[in-house]
Amino acid sequence: MSERLATLAEGLRAILAEHAPDEAGIEEVFVNTNAQSTLKLGQARGALMLVLADTGVPIGEYAARFVKKAVVGTGGADKAQIHAMVSVLLPGAKIAGADAADALAIAITHAHHRASARAVGAAA
Predict the structure, then answer these.
(1) Which superfamily does 63-124 belong to?
(2) Of 49, 70, 63, 50, the residue nearest 115 (C-alpha)
(3) CA–CA dist 68, 31 (Å, integer)
(4) Cα→Cα distances 9→24, 43, 76, 90, Å
(5) Could you give the angle at which helices 2-19 and 35-54 cross, rounded to 10 degrees?
(6) What is the pLDDT of residue 118?
(7) Computed from CA positions of residues 8, 94, 79, 87, in that sequence, does the dihedral angle turn out positive or negative?
(8) Which residues touch 6 (CB under 8 Å, ≥6 apart)?
(9) Mean pLDDT per segment of 10 residues, for the chain of length 124 residues?
(10) Which residues pair with 60 in a beta bridge?
């Protein structure tokens, strides 16, 4: 497991070095019926959050239901609905499966959330 976490961290460091994002969005941990799966997800999430924190990239955290509602319009959307809506919102993007669609949905949610926060801050 430690080697897998190191691979995740190294991969994210490479992406950050190549693209230099100003911010990042990540899904909050949800409690799964399988405790082992939840623990592994939490460990992976922690490794990624550590890399982001080490590199000074601010992180927005979003619950899965919040992401679904932001992108599809309902918190109970399934993976196919998320994939379809991400395809509509990002025409021309090559989405490599459901996990990629989920990641893009989180990015879209974060971008919208930050734009709204800036707009509210500017109006105040």
Answers:
(1) Ribonuclease H-like superfamily/Ribonuclease H (3.30.420.10)
(2) 70
(3) 17
(4) 14, 11, 31, 27
(5) 40
(6) 75
(7) positive
(8) 47
(9) 96 97 92 86 95 96 95 94 96 92 96 83 61
(10) 25
